Amino acid sequence: MQSPRLEIANIVKDYGGRRVVDDVSLQVMPGQVTCLLGPSGCGKSTTLRIIAGVEKQDRGTIHVDGKLVCDTVFRLPPEARSIGLMFQDFALFPHLTVGQNVAFGLQTRDAGARVQALLDKVGMTRHIDDYPHQLSGGEQQRVALARALAPKPQIMLMDEPFSGLDDRLRDDIRDETLAVLKDEGTAVLLVTHEPGEAMRMADEIALMRDGRVVQQGAPYNIYNAPIDRAAAAFFSDINVIPGVVQGALTDTPFGQFLAPGLPDGTEVDIVIRPQHLKIDFDRGGRGPKPTSSEGTAARATVARARFMGASSLVEFRMDYDGSILKAVVPSVFLPKPGTALWLMIRRDRCFVFPRA
Ligand SMILES: Nc1ncnc2c1ncn2[C@@H]1O[C@H](COP(=O)(O)OP(=O)(O)OP(=O)(O)O)[C@@H](O)[C@H]1O
């Protein structure tokens, strides 16, 4: 079993009597990318600044490769932590060339070779003698990555590093950055408020809310087994069917759902992602209730259909109770309002949460 490269335990930070980081514990394994994901103001950047050493925690410990970096008594200064930093407003030194920027923190005799190798990796070799103002935003970002990696940090902390880039460029730079980081074997802690970015970059996601890590796991698990309604809603639009538990079951348009362990009378939300509602195209809403491996069925009529580009969003009015459920269908599917169809849902794709 590998030991974590970075381990933070029970970190607490208050500002003016308000708890901003509330007992946060995290591990990042060597060569892995962990994303600290959460809405604005939830304490992500503060956590990162504490790890970097530019902010002091009120409680908790930080270890790198098993060695204590800081607790509330002992503190290694930021420059002694073997931690690289990359922030959105990274500033390259304007009076230094690309090559000099990357070499800046290097005192070794083979600095030239290291600079060359890194510029190769980020595809910026031909710009080695250019100055930052001669580069595009994406090119500057590549140089900033090379500069941060030059001293071979054991850990890279990145705070919304791609948010200054436009959409198309951002996807490319993300993928390239990930490839370089993996190649270097660096452990990465990346802060972002964008679920899409976290899903794309992370081996592990730590979902943060109000200063706490509320759920941690691989992107697939966090997406498919969210801990509560808010965690589900953070990753996609959701449908919510309200229900009340009776005999460990609750009624829905799709029949009864299990609500294990919840006492009678508990109000619950049944959460369904729109992409998990399947349409039974074959039957066109006719005939008796279909039974299939696709799950359980309910009949509905189309209320509205909109083309979204890669997919279509269809709103259905459920025969059962007149409620509206949204389905996302790949490609083009734009049935007329009033069209009757059978909808299918797999029970294991639905989440039942007690109402908050
Ligand atoms: N130096 C400070 N003094 C007082 N309050 C602060 C300080 N730094 C941050 N805060 C507060 O702590 C809370 C968490 O801030 P933080 O920057 O860690 O959040 P975040 O999740 O990174 O948000 P964002 O994505 O907007 O940067 C915010 O309410 C912020 O106003």
TrEMBL record:
<feature type="domain" description="ABC transporter">
    <location>
        <begin position="6"/>
        <end position="235"/>
    </location>
</feature>
<dbReference type="InterPro" id="IPR050093">
    <property type="entry name" value="ABC_SmlMolc_Importer"/>
</dbReference>
<dbReference type="InterPro" id="IPR017871">
    <property type="entry name" value="ABC_transporter-like_CS"/>
</dbReference>
<dbReference type="Pfam" id="PF00005">
    <property type="entry name" value="ABC_tran"/>
</dbReference>
<keyword id="KW-1278">Translocase</keyword>
<dbReference type="InterPro" id="IPR003593">
    <property type="entry name" value="AAA+_ATPase"/>
</dbReference>
<dbReference type="InterPro" id="IPR003439">
    <property type="entry name" value="ABC_transporter-like_ATP-bd"/>
</dbReference>
<keyword id="KW-0997">Cell inner membrane</keyword>
<keyword id="KW-0547">Nucleotide-binding</keyword>
<keyword id="KW-0410">Iron transport</keyword>
<dbReference type="InterPro" id="IPR013611">
    <property type="entry name" value="Transp-assoc_OB_typ2"/>
</dbReference>
<dbReference type="Pfam" id="PF08402">
    <property type="entry name" value="TOBE_2"/>
</dbReference>
<keyword id="KW-0472">Membrane</keyword>
<keyword id="KW-0813">Transport</keyword>
<dbReference type="InterPro" id="IPR015853">
    <property type="entry name" value="ABC_transpr_FbpC"/>
</dbReference>
<dbReference type="GO" id="GO:0005524">
    <property type="term" value="F:ATP binding"/>
</dbReference>
<keyword id="KW-0406">Ion transport</keyword>
<dbReference type="InterPro" id="IPR027417">
    <property type="entry name" value="P-loop_NTPase"/>
</dbReference>
<keyword id="KW-1003">Cell membrane</keyword>
<keyword id="KW-0408">Iron</keyword>
<dbReference type="InterPro" id="IPR008995">
    <property type="entry name" value="Mo/tungstate-bd_C_term_dom"/>
</dbReference>
<protein>
    <submittedName>
        <fullName>ABC transporter ATP-binding protein</fullName>
    </submittedName>
</protein>
<keyword id="KW-0067">ATP-binding</keyword>
